[in-house]
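Subgroup meeting minutes
Present: P.N., E.W., G.H.
Scribe: E.W.

1. P.N. recapped why we're keeping a running log of single-chain structure predictions: easier to compare across weeks, and new members can see raw inputs and outputs side by side.
2. G.H. added today's entry (347 aa).
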Amino acid sequence: MTKRSILDLSPAELSQNLQELGQPKFRLQQVIEGLYKHHYESFDRFPNLPKKLTETLNDSFTLDSVSLVTSIRSRDRKTEKYLFTLHDQHKIETVLMKYDKRNTVCISSQVGCPLGCVFCSTGQMGFSRNLSSGEILGQVLYIMRLLENSSEKLTNVVYMGMGEPLLNYASVMESIDRLTDPALFNFGARRITISTVGIVPKIREFTSLNSQVNLAVSLHAPTDELRSQLVPNNRLHPLKPLIAACREYVDTTRRRTTFEYALIQDINDNDLQARQFVNLLKGILCHVNLIALNPSKEYPLPGSTRDRVDAFLAVLQQAGIPASIRMRRGIDIDAGCGQLAQSQHSE
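Output recorded in log:
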């Protein structure tokens, strides 16, 4: 029988489990500290737990919800991609990106993705299932332990890996609640970003929380006609209600929205489209991240040339839209946005 990951238990469920085992109330805090504060990899390392309880926990649970299959590092050594297997043998990918003062993990929320964006390898592989909150947190915990082994810390978490986070809303928000809970991971909400292609009702639900978690929305086109070709979800959630939901997010939280735009040569990168994009975003507190589309085996068209990216950026900046060109990371190991597809690499 496969042991359940203890990360799939909420603190309330963990408390009930310990009570059923006849443990005093203070045991909960000991287990929580070992799991969420010290990131122990074995129940045997938890101090003050009686031997019988340690044996029971070992028999019933695992401290991990993901198991490493393989990893690969980019040539510049700044990006590493991890292929994990789950309890049912499904696989997901997670990416660690190292910057001068930041260590950012890009985590998955689904096995595959149901949205089918035409230029995205994950979207083209189809959808298998949602991840549990424990499987989401397992990716973060693995990276935290890894960094701690070299006396480093995780500084940022982005829900930008495989899947559409807002289509797995309950598990994603449960994972964020535990990440930001001062009694658990105590990770700053402002260092967490949810990236979505735009599930309007869920953006509104997220807005109602008035959270400090950042919102990033992948647009990739300034008109419904073009966006529906690139991002089929646009037919269900077109630009007008999507942008309206983003404005509501800004008005409620007083936090800016980040808009992601992948530039595809001669598809969505001309001056007229840049001006249309300016009109779309007029008056909204935001920042635009531009990036030349990362190469994909499933999509034949190339990302825009640097000249086209620079020209598009200039139009936005001249109109007063805060924008920058996002640094491309891990392209040589298929670890960039839109490239994750359960590939089995080895160094």
